[in-house]
């Protein structure tokens, strides 16, 4: 987010601290389906396709600054959370 000019240096450090407080829950993802079907269908990286597949399976929104990921998420009916400064 710093690289994209959304956050300043101090905000980036505060953001890092906030992210460290987020609980992580690892979920299985159908890699074959995500990597092959979504990546091929939308011309995206398998890594991004796995996140989208997870959001689809859990029926949860995603938070991203990546324009292509936002576009694909919206096409798949995945809500995209906006970053508000």
Plain-language structure description:
This protein has helices at residues 9-20, 31-42, 46-58, 67-75, and strands at residues 62-63, 80-81. The mean pLDDT is 85. The relative contact order is 0.14. The protein is built from four helices and two strands, in the order αααβαβ. Helix 2 (31-42) packs across helix 3 (46-58). Strands 1-2 form a two-stranded parallel ribbon. The chain has a domain at 25-81. The N and C termini lie close together (11 Å). The protein is mainly α.
What would a concise description of this structure say?
Helices cover 54% and strands 5% of the residues.
**Biggest sheet features:** 2 strands, parallel
Alpha-beta classification: mainly alpha
Gap between N and C termini, in Å? 11 Å
Uncertain regions spanning at least 5 consecutive residues: none
Widest sheet, order of strands: 1-2
Mean pLDDT: 85
Beta content comes to under 5%
- Tally of separate helices: 4
Q: State the total count of DSSP E strands.
A: 2
Order of helices and strands: HHHEHE
Helix content: 40-55%
Indicate the radius of gyration in whole angstroms: 14 Å
What's the overall geometry? globular
């Amino acid at each position: 987010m710093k690289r994209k000019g959304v956050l300043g240096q101090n905000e980036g450090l505060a953001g890092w601290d906030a992210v460290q407080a987020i609980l992580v829950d690892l979920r299985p993802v159908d890699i074959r389906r995500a990597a092959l079907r979504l990546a091929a269908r939308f011309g995206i990286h398998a890594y991004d396709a796995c996140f989208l597949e997870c959001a689809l399976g859990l029926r949860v929104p995603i938070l991203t600054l990546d324009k292509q990921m936002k576009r694909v998420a919206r096409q798949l009916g995945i809500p995209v959370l906006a970053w508000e400064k």
